[in-house]
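This section describes the prediction task in plain terms. A model, or a person checking by hand, is given the sequence of a single protein chain and must write out its three-dimensional structure as a string of tokens. No templates, partner chains or ligands are provided. The sample shown here is typical of the held-out split.
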Amino acid sequence: MIGPGLSPLLQAFRARWEALGGHYWESVSGPGLTETLAAAADSLIDRVPGQTSSALWWPGPAWASLAWEAALPPDRWTVTPVTGREPLVLSGRPMDPSALRSAAASAALGVTGAAWAVADTGSVALTSAPGQGLWPSLLPPSHLIVLQEAQVVATVADGLRRMRDEGPPPAMAKIISGPSSTADIEGQLWIGVHGPGRVGVVVVAGAGAD
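The expected answer:
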């Protein structure tokens, strides 16, 4: 449910995001956010009883303080954390892009941050720095995005202006609207052909943009 007092932009984003097949959760910072992340992650995967699931945790600089160890506990998850920008660090060791690609391909869930989200289209923009790529949002079958409420803008044009005002353009950017889908195969709609078949956002209500 939409929490009381949340912005009309966020309400519009949620309605359109869910209409496109995306999953939605919201929380506030603190212990409740850890619980929400844990519930969201579990709901996006097909868990095998008695086995741990793999996740590539890359929420970005804005969420460096998030405790993935609590959100994705070791009795249920095998987590590969990615931190830093140049160079990237994978599980505490320097990493090249090919290692990130391999880790993403073997993960059941990719967890990332976002640049901004768009209320009138229900879309989320993801960007990367040089050498990072967007593998955590492309190769795992499920993708969970951590989004601040203040990152929701009205239109794509507003998001592009925000990107311009933040400095040099990113190495790569993409805008997603729900799970990957295509109708190129005999005119039938297929989900998850060119990317994750399940995509969810956790919106942190009241959180300001960095």
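For orientation: The radius of gyration is 16 Å.
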